[in-house]
Amino acid sequence: MSKLDPTAREPKHDVFQAIADPTRRSLLELLVDRELPLNSISVNYPMSRTAVSKHLRVLAEAGLVKERKVGRETRYRLDAEPLRELKRWLAYYERFWENKLDALKRFVEAEEPADAAGPERATESPPLKLAPAETHRDRDDS
After folding, report:
1. What is the pLDDT of residues 51-78, one digit of tens each?
2. Which of 67, 73, 93, 111 might form a disulfide with 37, Cβ 3.0–4.6 angstroms?
3. Which helix (H) or strand (E) element contains residue 61?
């Protein structure tokens, strides 16, 4: 939907709003490989058909679900194109996340604690030579 085309109808809900809800994400998963009528969809959820229908309406308004009338029933199917657009948009920013995660990994690995070295290293280092403990009596004599 181009901003340059004044006749293009903008969706009432954007993709982010639509996929923010776990029920709607579940509906998308259900519709990945097949087209289903509302009755077949709603049996998968512990809510009324009306509630499922409202979720489907949000997905349809975001362009993620297409509706098709077959006789008296409406069938729903996934339209993944808005998700592909979202993926392309996120891919641009992914390089920033990857750079930060790589930097964090290098930092964490460089700051390895001494006790993480394991018992092998502890036995390899020479034993510490401790000075004899000063007793209370030795201090009084001086």
Report:
1. 999 999 999 999 999 999 999 999 999 9
2. 73
3. helix 49-61
